[in-house]
Design brief:
45% of the residues lie in helices and 19% in strands. The chain has 464 residues and is α/β, with parallel strands linked by helices. It folds into 2 domains: 1-50 and 209-222 and 248-437, 3-Layer(aba) Sandwich (Hexokinase, domain 1); 53-208 and 223-247 and 438-453, Nucleotidyltransferase, domain 5 (2-Layer Sandwich), CATH 3.30.420. The protein has a 6-stranded mixed sheet, with helices on both faces. Strands 4-3-2-5-8 form a 5-stranded mixed sheet, with helices on both faces. It has a two-stranded antiparallel sheet with strand order 6-7. A hairpin with a 2-residue loop joins strand 3 and strand 4. Helix 6 (195-206) packs across helix 16, helix 7 (265-273) crosses helix 9 and helix 13 (363-395) packs across helix 15. The longest helix has 33 residues, at 363-395. It is globular. Bound molecules: alpha-D-glucopyranose (GLC). Alpha-D-glucopyranose binds next to helix 6 and strand 10.
Amino acid sequence: MSESSEIARLREFLTELIPSEDQFQRLYQNFCTQIRKGLGAKTNKDASTKCYLTYVQDFPNGNETGNYLALDLGGSNFRVLLVTLKGDHEADQVSKIYQLTERELLGTGPHLFDYIAKCLHEFVCELKLENENLPLGFTFSFPCVQTGLSKATLVRWTKGFNCSDTVGKDVGAMLKAAISRRVGLKIDMVAILNDTTGTQMSCAHRNPGCNIGLIVGTGCNACYTEKVENCERLDAKYKDKPKIIINVEWGAFGEKGGLDHLYTEYDRVVDKNSLNPGAQIYEKMVAGMYLGELVRLIMMRAVKENLVFSQCKLRKHITDILTKRPHCIESKVLSEVANDKGDDWPVVKNVFKQVFNLKDPDPKDCMKFKYICDVVVKRCGNMLGVTLGALVNKVGESFSIIGVDGSVYRCHPNLDGYMRETLDKFVEKDYRYDIMLSEDGSGRGAALVGAVVYRDYMDKTRLK
Ligand code: GLC
């Protein structure tokens, strides 16, 4: 069979992963419906995107100063930071990463929070700050119902976390309790925030036009600035300020069927094998935790149908690995192979060697593997562009900046371009947008929320 007809067969096999214009239109409409429902008081319970109120209503102006502690829990590891805001849009930080093991991810809540308090204690002692009583911002990147800036009830775990005795409880209270169990540790927790909010705030610190925050990392989610009059669930006492950040929690989009028209058998298996079947449907199509798995499942079927490795003598062994080893293709592989220029395929060859112990692959198989990875990332980027377009239109400003963070966005060379392709189609003609990479949204954002809370408090006391 000629090379071009083989590629044509593979392309045909992958068509269900290449959405049509119509399918993107439906995605746009369905997503807008869910946002409307999420914001409405009566409809919120039926919405997949819960549009959580963050109580962040003040925005940085770049002049913020002072030392803040920040905790960042929500990805594959946990960080503690000391952030120094220096005015003039500048900030410095010192941080330390602490590894999380299954004992923390899947153990009890008190164990997790005691571990966090221990790391925090070690960190402040190392910096000789243990007697300072610094304000702390806690970036806790999971769905929470907030009733104020420092009160957040955990709705569910996502991204491979599943600690017992935590869902339905106030995360702030659990952290405070763990801090008070540690003799000699004094910390003033002033705010709990999502990483999307942190990212938006950190970009707004540099450029006040940032009104959308996006994370494409282990998980995927976005937030945006909404007018208070559109937030039916917001108590009147918060309506003297004009705006509030809404944490969309769009990873859950699709739980009410909004993505059925794009769903493939691969998505179904990823969901079925996950810790949370039926939940976080959109996230499972676009986030780092799942992209490698999608490629594994596609490869599994492609090998079975003789579309890849058809002439390879290790075919049976490769099939075995693909079938029996979930997660054998890591998501970072998708970014790495996108950088392989294709003359002699050094990156793809290395992946094949690591994963399948295959030494001399056929260059055609290398090209096909890169193509499969690209189809998965393009679907992800294009879908993100559609839902981001909906947020840009919802914000309704003549110019919106989308602040972005997350390993997948940072590492993949083509994701930004794929997002822009559909953003350009869906952003209405009166509006323009740009995308800005955040500088450590989770850390700096937490400090900034702390700083604007403090500024607001000082303003109010001065007025009295
Ligand atoms: C998951 C979490 C969400 C977070 C996102 C990115 O979707 O539920 O809160 O923002 O991951 O980390």
